[in-house]
Amino acid sequence: MNTAKSLAIEARSLTKSYGDNDVLGGIDIAVPEGSVFSLLGPNGAGKTTTVNILTTLVPADGGEVFVKGRSVTRDADEVRKRIGVTGQFAAVDGLLTGRENLHLMGSLHHLGKAETRRRTEELLERFDLGEAARRPPATYSGGMKRRLDIAMCLMGDPQVIFLDEPTTGLDPSGRRTVWSIIRELVRGGTTVFLTTQYLEEADELADRIAVLDGGKIVAEGTPEQLKRLVPGGHISLRLHRADQVALAAQALSASAFDADQLTVQVASDGSVRALRALLDALDREQIEVDELTVHTPDLDDVFLSLTGRVESAA
Amino acid sequence: MSTLAYTLSDTSTMLRRQLKHMIRYPSLTAIIIGMPVVFLLLFVYVFGGTLGNGLGGDAVAGTAAGGREAYIAYVTPGILVTTIAAAVQGTAIGVAMDMTEGIVDRFRTMSIARVSVLTGHVLGSLIQALLGVTVVLAVAVLVGFRPEASALGWLGLFGTIALIAFGLIWLTVGMGMAAKSVETASNTPMPLLLLPFLGSGFVPTESMPTWLRYFADYQPFTPFIEVTRSLLAGEAVGGEDLALTVGWSLALALIGYAVAKRKFNKR
User: What digits encode the pLDDT tens for the residues A132-184?
Assistant: First the structure.
């Protein structure tokens, strides 16, 4: 299979439906080796279904998927040897201790006793699970459970890891810890496929983001490219005096103004240069300003305008 | 390692996991073994005197006396088979718990012998059932049961118990896999506990009304109990009962296996 030499994950026109419900309507995914790819979408967009297909759990109705160049349908076992999966709900054995959970993974990967022990202790240390090692996960916090979950999927030293909403339900510090774990994995050369409904998370971690909505990929690119998709960067001013609104609008070639509200809106990329020019113009005309805000488009704008959940403010 | 070696290695890993579960969660084992012990004591001490008198002289060979003593000899085999039916209640619960907890999805994304997830449950439950039968048998002896089995008979007895358990365990693995929730899984195998009552476990089927007797004589638990009873009494095992016991056990195992496998791969 020479189709996917430099791609760790490649999916072509993937479709899946359950009964009458079309969950995936023909999506394409290409994830280069060693990168972080984030599938971003609201609940019910088809993220988990996509992960299930990519990780051999569920067969697709149509399309082809290759992970590390191996077909997930024809060569499922070869794919399974190369991946680590952390599902949406912590997949740990609730009656075994943290250490025993890791040993279980080691045995199932046929690592041998010595290697299993070595990796277990290393992962316990690395994920700060020392005190959790002797206790069953029922007594863990959400963050600890998630760390153990990820540690378990690393026991087999996977080349590609799939994380389905790894930070859902975690507190901010737990979230930051998971982020730093993911960054560390990528530094080690692992390819990461991440689903999330948090734009901030995709923005922080991903090299490429695909926005999934209603089973279709509605946009794809780097975080920067996606932000450029949505126009609407602007500077908003609230003036002090109503009689200056028209003047300001003219001097600044405003895109919109409202004399009653005393507001003027100027299209702008929000750069320092643009801001300085604007301030110079205000000075020149001696316009008094009460409030100035710079609005640059963020992924929220992209997300909302693409998925149509809320009408874009821009 | 060969495929077979991997399968054996994964199965033993999964079995160790099940044994740890048994140790960590002893209350389930205690209930599973405790219930038949309570049945035994109840039937021997509460109902035993009366029921034993009703058995008739030759219902149990070698115990012409009737009364409680005769009833212990009659009911112990029934209780032992009930013990197996009780043990497999835990199997369905364990399987369903695994399925709902996400850990099995983790196993399914790993390159392991898939059947080991289920065989681990089967072997774990088999050990639990044999342990239960041994404990219940010991209690029976303590309250006056006197088995007459030869050395070979004991071997045959434990072989038969293991075979019956094997059939019922696979059946309940199938039930656990088919259940949508742990609650359902804990209910579906319940009727198995009733079947020894609707067979020759507690009273001879001859004493039942014809329509019920028809069911009692042809349901799997009657041959199970009859073979167990003959072996414990040191008598020759009826050929038809033996054939039915082997046949039913394998058939139940096959049905359970087919359901479980289909559900496991389809999920």
Answer: 899 999 888 888 888 999 999 999 999 999 999 998 888 888 888 889 999 99
Considering only the beta carbons, identify the residue of B1, B21, B109 that sits closest to A110: B1
Positive or negative torsion for Cα A294, A298, A302, A304: negative
CB-nearest to A55 from B1, B21, B109 is B109
**Residues of chain B contacting residue A68, judged by C-beta atoms under 8 Å apart:** none
- The two beta strands, A191-196 and A36-40, are parallel
Instruction: Determine whether the interchain pair B20/A92 forms a contact, defined as Cβ–Cβ distance below 8 Å.
Output: no
What's this model's pTM, rounded to 2 decimal places?
Answer: 0.81
Tens-digit pLDDT profile for residues B196-217: 999 999 999 888 999 999 999 9
Sequence letter at residue B54: G
Mean pLDDT of B174-185: 92
CB B157 within 8 A of CB B60: no
**Domain definitions of chain B by residue range:** 3-266
Considering only CB atoms, A80 lies closest to which of B20, B105, B110, namely B110
Q: What is the mean pLDDT of residues A37-61?
A: 91
- Distance CA(B84)–CA(A273), nearest Å, equals 82
Which of these ranges, A45-54, A256-265, B70-79, has the smallest mean pLDDT? A256-265
**Topology (CATH level 3) of domain A7-222:** Rossmann fold (3.40.50)
pLDDT given at position A314: 34
Query: For A193-197, A233-237, B151-155, which range has the lowest pLDDT when averaged over its residues?
Result: A233-237
Q: State residue A1's pLDDT score.
A: 45
Q: Which residues belong to CATH 3.40.50.300 in chain A?
A: 7-222
User: Residue B42 has what DSSP assignment?
Assistant: I
Size of chain A in residues: 314
* Residues of chain A in Cβ contact (below 8 Å) with chain B: 55-57, 77-78, 80-81, 83, 85, 87, 89-96, 100, 104, 107-110, 136, 152-153, 156
| pLDDT value, residue A313 | 37
Map residue A263 onto helix, strand or coil. Answer: strand
Rounded distance between C-alpha atoms, residue B61 and residue B235, angstroms: 9
Domain with CATH 3.30.70 in chain A: 233-296
Interface confidence: ipTM more than 0.90: no
Task: Sheet with A7-18: list strands edge to edge.
Answer: A21-32, A7-18, A62-67, A70-71
If you count residue pairs, one on A and one on B, with CB atoms under 8 Å apart, how many are there? 59
Q: Under an 8 A CB cutoff, do B24 and A136 touch? A: yes
- The beta strand positions in B27-162, using DSSP E, are none
- State the fold for domain A233-296: Alpha-Beta Plaits (3.30.70)
